[in-house]
Specification:
Blueprint (H helix, E strand, L loop, with lengths): L18 E4 L3 E3 L2 E3 L22 E5 L9 E5 L4 E7 L2 E6 L11 E6 L8 E5 L4 E6 L5 E5 L10 E5 L6 H7 L3
Antiparallel strand pairs: 1-9, 2-3, 4-11, 5-12, 6-9, 6-11, 7-8, 7-10
């Protein structure tokens, strides 16, 4: 593999401010259920800096990266990502000058097919991020951001010289 990947079993050297919350999958003969956000999960929800404002779902085809050559970034908003179907890799890069982990890149394998990959990922403000689908099926990403959509809060940063989704695709045989 070209890269190192994180999941619930592998969490060493996370970027400052990243939180991974294991989601419990309840299965029976009728299917599966998992809770996605609760007020009593203080590590991913609080009225101060991790409040709830909205939820959305994106559906992305296999092998496609959101923002292929650019990072997504928010000035103030934290994102809460869950991969509800398929399998994705979420990349988070830390450019923050006052962070203990400046310059660090984390790649997270996410999806409901494995207990180690079924979690909520908190992406802190001012970190660059994006994701690609690594499953043969489309990826369903849920996000519970801490702010309502505001185009002035978000931006795009070119990463063509520093990071390539192609190396992730190669790692997963895409």
């Amino acid at each position: 593999m070209n890269n190192s990947y994180f999941d619930l079993a592998h969490q060493q050297e996370l970027i400052e401010g990243i939180v991974i919350r294991k989601l419990i999958i309840h299965k029976d003969e009728t299917g599966a259920l998992f809770e996605t956000l609760r007020r009593d999960w203080q590590d991913v929800y609080n009225e101060g800096n991790l409040n709830f404002q909205m939820q959305y779902m994106s559906i992305t085809p296999p092998g496609i990266a959101r923002d292929e050559k650019q990072w997504h970034v928010h000035k103030n908003q934290s994102d809460r990502f869950i991969c509800a179907s398929g399998r994705i890799v979420t990349a988070v890069f830390d450019p923050r000058p006052n962070s203990k982990t400046i310059g660090k890149l984390n790649l997270f394998v996410m999806g409901p097919g494995s207990e180690d990959e079924m979690y909520m990922l908190i992406i802190p403000p001012e970190t660059y991020h994006g994701f690609t689908v690594i499953s043969k099926d489309q990826g369903y990403l849920l996000n519970f951001p801490t702010q309502l959509y505001n185009p002035q809060d978000e931006g795009r940063i070119d990463h063509a010289q520093d990071f390539s989704w192609q190396s992730v695709r190669e790692d997963f045989g895409l």
